Every structure is written in structure tokens, then in C-alpha cells.
Amino acid sequence: MTNPATTPQPATTGRSLLRMQGIVKHFPGVRALDGVDLEVLPGEVHCVLGQNGAGKSTLIKVLSGAHQPDDGTITWEGEPVRLPHPQSAMDLGIATIYQELDLVDGLSVAENIFLGHEPRTAGFVRRHAMRRAAADLLARLGHPEVDPATEVGRLSAAGKQIVSMARALSHDAKLIIMDEPSAVLDQQEVQRLFGVIGDLAASGVAVVYISHRLEEIRQIGDRVTVLKDGRTVAAGLSAADTPTSEVIRLMTGRTIAHAFPERPTGRPAGGPVLSVRGLARPGEFADVSFDVHAGEIVGLAGLVGSGRSEILETIFGARKAAAGTVTVNGVELRPGSIAAAVSAGLGLCPEERKSQALVLDDAIFRNVTMASLGTFAKAGFLDRAAERSAAEERLVDLDVRPAGVDRLVRTLSGGNQQKVVLARWLLRECKVLLLDEPTRGVDVGARAQLYELIRELADAGLAVVLVSSEITEVIGLSDRVLVVSNGRVLTDTPASEITEHDVLGMVMEGEVA
Amino acid sequence: MTGSGAGTAEGVRVDRPESGSGRWPVLLSGATGRNLGLVLALLLLCAVGAITAGDRFVDFGNVMTVLRLASVIGVVSVGMTFVIAGGGIDLSVGAIVALASVWATTLATQRIATDYGWVVVVTTALAVGAACGLINGLLIAYGRIAPFIVTLAMLAGARGLAEMIAGKKTQIVTVPGFVDFFSGRVLGIPVLVIIFAAVAVGGWILLNRTTFGRRTLAVGGNVEAARLAGIKVQRHTTMLYVLLGLACGLAAIMLLARTTAGTSTHGQLYELDAIAAVVIGGTLLSGGRGTIVGTVLGVLIFTTLTNVFTLNDLDTSTQAVAKGVIIVVAVLLQQRFARRSDSPPHPARAGGAGGAAGSSGT
């Protein structure tokens, strides 16, 4: 199953299964894909590498028919094709297995595999035939022990992935796209998954495999395509023979559309505001210790699933620490208590802004004052004038646009919604800001503004902890960088002494499956 | 990765609070508009009543009868507004009313009440209501069981307990002064109506002017956001059910005064009447928006409907059908308005809801 192609292969080989050329996809304010080429041969495992924001997800969506490209051609088995909707991709034999698996927990394995195309006679599902066919597919995937009658909700993440793959096979898929399948699996499960992928490839099914983990790619990949800034920068590299440093070189050096604000030169004065010691949660992260001083931004860099968001939520008390302590200005917080964290001066801007931070259909000012209602109340009665003007003041400070505290939060853009969440904690006069992916869903122009703002807040004396999938963002904005991999902190270094290349090397090599 | 989230560019947004939809829809789309619609519906019903039943309908005594009938279910509905606005539901209100009415009129309770005054009856009913609410709240907030399930269990359990205590008998209120006080009138207005008015005003203030009300809407609007903003969601949820339990206790007292007896069959189908009144009033069944004015109007609409039907000698079955139709029509109309105000003209996705942004009550 190895393909000895070591040099980029721009031209068609004539027997390619899929060829995408010059794919362009715009979103308002972003050019997500800017000329992507991808060629997949029958029966190969083709890895797509690229940093966060390089365009991998958009590429998958174009390939699965979820997004329509603005330009470029797609050729399938030598014929030019269009994929106007997901069904048309499925009809051709392209199946996508998403990170969030699209299975129905309450149905059985067999019912999930054949959902929508059950074998039937006169409207009645042929249950036995369906079970038998499901068992055959599972056996073909090397997992005959999965009982087709089991309810899917009772399976592990690995089991669910197998069911998704069986479903893809039931559609006679010739190409299966897997988006970071190993992120939710443990090492043993990953090895079994690789066995399955190997068998699939041997039987002629091609796999497009998205992952950040170089070790995995070396183990199962045949060829690699590298994306950067929405472009293909290298195609058809040999997965086994291309040196790591070369791969990382190709992935790094992304064009950065914005400058990061300058770091202050002096060392932070005084003791730490936030002290984390030996923090642990089994299965998520272990032995996390670090300090943050006033005026300092500490960044946590790591892959999805590395434990970085879990660390932040545990510091905030949204998850209960199994071991270790969190101390704010010398006061140890009660584990698992958000109220304790908030009154000690912590504020969290969570990863999923819309579902975790905002009441979208409520007025902006009510979203801002949500965490500090007590300060506007006498005997439980709200002083609404004071409440509004206080909220207004913060929003003007943060330059939230359009102005108007009575608007629904839903009508604001991503960047301005993020500012509303920031305003909430500034109003609470927090001492430590925990920012989880503060620029997710924020377009390029607004990002620079948010960066400035975060630095200004630090300069004003806040201690900031920043989590981001974008390595350049963590390095560019932070004073110190902690690299997190598999729930462990690998290094704690000044941001000026570490490069994107170093971090990427650490997180990609660190996660040996 | 860049693509999916980067919906709209900052620069594209335009501030046009009202230009998207004309002035009239804006007026109709907000809380004021919803209540105006309900007032119109109520007036329409009154007109039907006046035309079909004439003097028997347009009569001070009859109006007071309607209000007296509305007051018991009204108190429950105000409590229900809080629970629903806070993202919950309570199916057990009728059963709690029955249990409280029975418990407050047992021989033992009445004997003590005869010695210490009818306030014992009142306290017992309130305590029983609050206790049932507390059990509901604790199981929902800390036991993490769905409100539907917990209160369904309470519906069965509380009514069963009421039957056990009363032995399926009717317990006449004999405590001196109780019925006299609650069935009396102040300045010609029945005490029950005054209690309902007080509860409605109190509820409005609690929902719109206090931290408690604001937290209720925050918890109902996005429970995770409320939790991560440091609001004690579990404690607050529990308090919402206790509040409704108290309202049920009060409703039981009022029912005792009106019927002069406690029985395990009191409060049948109150859960449906209360939920219907709350929902046609404009409170979101999914939580995050609540309106006491709407709830009161909803209660009045249903009670007036019953009155008009009774005066015209129409049977209760026709009444039930009419109720069903009203619920569906009211909610359909609200969704129309809601869609018009929440989804402004597409490409710009600007403003539109500017004038009607208030999601709290009225």
C-alpha cells in the first residue's frame, strides 16, 4: 500500500480516483481556500496536513458537498463532477466521517448503518437481513465483536467510529474522509483503527486522513498534501520518507495578516496573581502547575483534545479538580465552585461563545451585567439606570459596534459578541481573565483589534491565560507559552524564546499514538 | 477552520434599528404588541359575551364572578410563569393544590386552628405547597431528572397522598373566621380578586425589577452561560419550584374559601390551564422570556370564555374545543410576530429588533 512518490506530482497519473484543482472558496471577509489541489489514488491513504486555519475543514466540506467552491474543478474517476449537496457526494461514493459523529444514539448498530437505506420488502424492514449485512460489514472492518443489535449510545467513541465507517461502506464508498479520528481515541483504539484503515486501503477504498499527528501519518499514510493559508504548498509527498523538519517547514511561516501588539519589556512585579499547583483530572490532564502575574499573558498551546480547555475550565471551577490547587492572590479556591472562582476575581470567556457565554436573544446590557447583578441591587431590587449606564460605559470602552445596549446580542458579529463577554468580566472587576479561543469565528480584521484589546487589559494589570489552536496567536500575543500535549505541560518558556516551528514540532511529535 | 465560523464581516454591519420593517410591525412585534393582541382578543370575547348574553354578561356581579374564578388559577399561572421562563415545567400544580387543600382541612389541623386561629390553615397550606415545590426543585436541580418526569411523578404522588389523607371524603372548613375573611369583600371587591391582583403585581415586580427575576431569565435563556457567569443555577432552579409550590398553597387557600371544603379532587387539570395561560400570554415554553401581564391576560381570556359559554348554556365539551383552538391560534400568531422581529431582512442581518429588544417581561 505504499506509493513511492517522493516528489510533488502536479500532473494527473490517469488513474486517479479524485482530482481537485484550483479550488477557491470565499467567505465574507475570508478567503478560506485560495487554490487548493488534491489528488487521491484508488486504495491509498492520503493525509492532509495543515495548521489550524489552513483550510482543511473547508476542503472537506467542499469535497463532501456541504460547501460549493467559488472556482476550481473536481474530477472523479476521470469525469468532471459537481457536488451541489451532500447526497450527490454520497451517490458518487464519497463518505465523510466527522469528528462529531452523526449517529442516532437510541438506535441499534444495524439500524444506524442502514439508516435511510434499510433493506426492505413492501415497506417492512427486513430486520434479519439488515443485521446479517451489518455483521458482514463489521467483520470486514475487523470488528466482528460489535453486535449489530447493540444500542449505539452504549458504544465507546471508537465503537461509534467503526459504525460510521460501516455505514460508509454500506453506501459502497470508494473514498472515506476522516477528520482527526484519533482525537477521541486512546492508543490501543488508534492502533485498531489503523488496522481497519489498512485493510480498507488494501481492498481498494481510498482514505483521506486529516490529522495533526506526524507519527500517525508516518504509520498509515501513503502520501501527504500540505495546506497553508488556503493553498496547497506541497502535494504527493511520501508519508514515510519526508523528514519531519521539512513537513513542519512547509506548514509554518503562514502569512499573518495582522501584527501582534508589542510586549512590555519589564518583568512583572510582585507575586503571582494566579497560582496553579499540581492540578489534575484523571483522563484529561495531570500535574499542571504554573503562575500568572499581573500584567502577564500566559498562553497554552496544544492540539484539540490535548486538555488545554479542560485545564482552563477546571481553574474556573466549571470542572472539579481531582487533585491540586488553584490560588488567586493567596486565597485557595474551593474546587468545583464557579461562585468561589468568580468572587475571587476569575472570569472565563468560554470556547463556545454562543452556547456557553451568551443569551443570544437577550439585550446586550443584560448579557454584560449577568455576572454582577448583585452590585446593582438594593435588597434584591435592581437599579436599572445604574445597570444600563455601567454596561454602556464598558461597551464604549471596548468599542462594541454598533452601539446601543438594547440590541439583541444575536445581531452582533463574532468579534463584538466576544467583547460583550469581556465587558461582563471587566464590569465584575476581575483580576484574572481566562480566554478560551477568543478569536474563534472572528474575522481577520476584527482579530487585530481583539489582540490590541487583550494586551491593553494586561497592561492595565490583569493576569490573562490564553488558550488557542492557532500557534501563531499564542506565541504572538503571550508573554509566556506553555505547550500542552496529552494532558501534560511539556514546557513553560518565554514567548520570545520559542518559535512556531518548535511548538508545532512538540505537539506533533509529542503525541505518539 | 477559518471558514465555518467567519460568518459576517464587521464592516458590513449597518445600524438600522427600524428601517427593515415598517413602524406598525415593530410596534406589534414587541412585548407591547403581543399584549395588545391579547387585549384585543379579550375585548372580542367580551363583545361576543355582551351580544349573546346581554345584561347577564355586562353586569358588575358577573364581572366579579369571572375575576373570582380567574383568581385561583391566576395565582398558579403567575407562579408557573417563573418556572417556564426559567426553562422548566411543572405538571404537578393541580395535585399540589389538592394536597394542600386536604392537609389544611384535616380534623387535626382544624382543631389546632380553632384554638390558634385560621392562620394555622393558611400556614399549613403554604407549607405543604412549598414542601412539594422543594421536593420537585431538589430532584430537578440536584437529582438532574427532567422536570417533566419529576413533576409527573409529583402529580401522581401528591394527589394519591391527598386521597389517602382525606379518605376520598370532602372535608368541610369549620374553622371560624376563615371563610368569612377570604370570601369577604373590600370596597365591593372580593378578597380573592385582591389577592390575585397582589400576586400579579408582586410577580411582575419580582420578574422585572429584581435580581431574582433577571437570573430566572438568564437561567431560562442559556443555562450554561448563566452557570459560567457565576449564577448558582441549581439553587435558583430549586427556588423557582418552591415559589410555584407556594403559589399552589395560596391557590389552595383561595379554593378552600370559594368552595368551603378541602378535597382530593381540587385542582383537576390546573396544570394544563396554567401552562396554556402562560404560553398564550407570550412566555417562551423553552425559557428565557416571561411576561406576567401576558399570563394574566391569558388567564382572563380563558375564564371569560368559560363564562360566555356558561351564560349561553353551551356544554363544557364545546368549551374545551374552543380552548384548544385558541391555544393553537395564539401561538401561531405569536410565532409570526416573533419571526418578523427576530429575523430581519437577510443580507445585512442588521437591526430590526432594535426597538423591541426587551426580552424580559411586561
Q: What does this molecule look like?
A:
- The complex is a heterodimer of chains A (513) and B (362).
- Helices cover 33% and strands 26% of the residues of chain A.
- By secondary structure, chain A is of the alpha/beta class.
- Chain A has 4 domains: 1-93 and 174-255, P-loop containing nucleotide triphosphate hydrolases (Rossmann fold, 3-Layer(aba) Sandwich), CATH 3.40.50; 105-173, no CATH class; 257-345 and 431-513, P-loop containing nucleotide triphosphate hydrolases (Rossmann fold, 3-Layer(aba) Sandwich); 355-429, no CATH class.
- In chain A, the strands form 6 sheets. Chain A has a 6-stranded mixed beta sheet with strand order 6-9-10-3-11-12, sandwiched between helices. In chain A, strands 18-21-22-15-23-24 form a 6-stranded mixed beta sheet, sandwiched between helices.
- In chain A, a hairpin with a 2-residue loop joins strand 4 (71-76) and strand 5.
- Chain B is mainly α.
- Chain B has one domain (22-342): ABC transporter involved in vitamin B12 uptake, BtuC.
- Helices cover 70% and strands 2% of the residues of chain B.
- Chain B has 16 helices and 4 strands.
- Chain B has a two-stranded antiparallel ribbon.
- The model of chain B is unreliable at 1-28 and 341-362 (pLDDT under 50).
Features:
heterodimer; A: about 525 residues; alpha/beta; Rossmann fold; 4 domains; six-stranded mixed sheet; 17 helices; 24 strands; globular; disordered N terminus; B: about 350 residues; mainly alpha; ABC transporter involved in vitamin B12 uptake, BtuC; two-stranded antiparallel ribbon; two-stranded antiparallel sheet; 16 helices
Blueprint (SSEs and pairs):
The complex is a heterodimer of chains A (about 525) and B (about 350).
Chain A: E1 18-27, E2 30-40, E3 45-49, H1 56-63, E4 71-76, E5 79-81, H2 86-92, E6 94-97, H3 109-113, E7 120-121, E8 124-125, H4 127-140, H5 157-170, E9 175-179, H6 187-202, E10 206-210, H7 214-220, E11 223-228, E12 231-238, H8 244-251, E13 272-281, E14 285-293, E15 297-301, H9 308-315, E16 323-328, E17 331-332, H10 338-344, E18 346-349, H11 353-357, H12 364-369, E19 377-378, E20 381-382, H13 384-397, H14 414-427, E21 432-436, H15 444-459, E22 463-468, H16 471-477, E23 480-485, E24 488-494, H17 500-510
Parallel strand pairs in A: 3-10, 3-11, 6-9, 9-10, 15-22, 15-23, 18-21, 21-22
Antiparallel strand pairs in A: 1-2, 1-4, 4-5, 7-8, 11-12, 13-14, 13-16, 16-17, 19-20, 23-24
Helix pairs in contact in A: 13-14
Chain B: H1 2-5, H2 23-29, H3 31-53, H4 60-85, H5 93-103, H6 107-116, H7 119-141, H8 147-166, E1 171-172, H9 178-183, E2 185-186, E3 189-190, H10 191-209, H11 211-221, H12 223-228, H13 233-259, E4 261-262, H14 270-281, H15 292-311, H16 316-342
Antiparallel strand pairs in B: 1-4, 2-3
Helix pairs in contact in B: 2-3, 2-16, 3-15, 4-10, 4-11, 4-13, 4-14, 4-15, 5-7, 5-8, 5-13, 6-7, 7-8, 7-13, 10-11, 11-13, 14-15, 14-16, 15-16
